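Box 4.2: Ligand-aware structure prediction
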Amino acid sequence: MQKIALITGITGQDGSYLAEFLLGRGYEVHGLIRRHSISNTSRIDHILRSNYNKIKFFLHFADTTDSSNLMRLIAEIRPTEVYNLAAQSHVGVSFEVPEYTAEATGVSTIKLLEAIRVNGGNSRYYQASTSELFGGLPETAPQSESTPFYPKSPYGAAKLYSYWITVNYRESYNIFACNGILFNHESPRRGENFVTRKITLAIANIIAGKQEKLSLGNMNARRDWGFAGDYVEGMWRMLQQDKPDDYVLATNETHTVREFVEAAFKELGITVRWEGIGIDEKGYDAQTGKLLVDVNPEYYRPAEVEFLWGNPAKAEKALGWKRKVDFRGLVTMMMDADLKEIAGMSCKEYAQSREN
Ligand code: NAP
Ligand code: GDD
């Protein structure tokens, strides 16, 4: 039987990797896209350009805050699986647009679940839940499915609603609905204002002489960073089980933002020498003394999730899922992609040129 997937958020980082993954497994893939004044399909253009005779890939204009289009599309497409990835996904921005975040990241979830329920309740449903639910208290790390929730942002609070309404529709209506509680996952397709991509992009621009330095907020925050390509496979595996459940996906490694900065510069053969603390902290090229990194309190958040470190044991055992790319591999992949795009060379080539 032809499997049909509907992906909300298909133009985002995860949506693009998931679409590739499902098309590779022979799925018919439908995605919701929002109308923009300028094209926003850069992450899926390669799919759109590929051979239409061989793949079944369809885009529909829609918005997850609009229940009428969700009802209609579920009725028309009759998806076997629905992956709800659409969200205002930036934690810092959620403090600037809290009401909209509540709508897009929280209330939209019930609109989609209702559309599934009213249309027979037969689609399997994946909810993009998040490690932000845990609040990152150091004493709770490593966090697992049984760690209490304590969201610390409008984004986290909106995702808390989505998490519980997903559990509620599973228990009330017997819908096959799963929460993937995913720790941070990144890639060369990561949005440019998330910290990992901001770092690799800024370093590439500094090397190319297009940017003076990298300015960051809280460099002490710890995250469990994995590769997005690994995580979309975990999403799919959740919907292939006999019973619906909720799972943490993580690498079981944690690093500070500062360590990510150090590792990214290291790819280019640059060692960072740190001086000062708090807003006075600065990072210099240990060899040349050039200022590379400073702190701008503008990037501090009203409340911070300090310490995320995930325990993926349940997913590893029940789903047979395990991350393939480790921290070092992720940094190399992202740094290399940005340097090639901006400066036209690989990290190795730059590091060698520095030695000569
Ligand atoms: P992303 O790159 O920011 O993509 C978000 C997607 O949602 C984009 O396609 C965006 O469309 C779409 N979208 C936003 N509001 C929408 C609306 N009202 N109607 C329709 N589409 C809308 O996010 P991501 O990193 O791929 O993350 C995917 C999901 O996983 C999100 O729900 C995120 O909160 C969650 N999550 C992510 C991580 C992570 O580390 N990446 C970890 C845990 C959970 P436009 O292109 O039109 O803006
Ligand atoms: N964005 C950003 N920009 N973050 C910075 C900066 C900066 O200049 N400087 C320090 N940080 C710190 C943030 O304060 C945070 O502690 C950490 O770097 C990671 O920030 P982001 O990359 O923006 O990601 P996030 O952890 O807040 O949220 C991401 O992961 C969540 C899962 O834990 C997003 O993808 C969410 O959608 C996702 O749910």
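In the box above, the bound molecule is guanosine-5'-diphosphate-alpha-D-mannose. The pocket of guanosine-5'-diphosphate-alpha-D-mannose (ligand 2) is lined by residues 89, 91-92, 130-132, 183-184, 193-195, 198, 216-218, 221, 223, 257, 299, 301, 304-305, 308 (CB under 6 Å).
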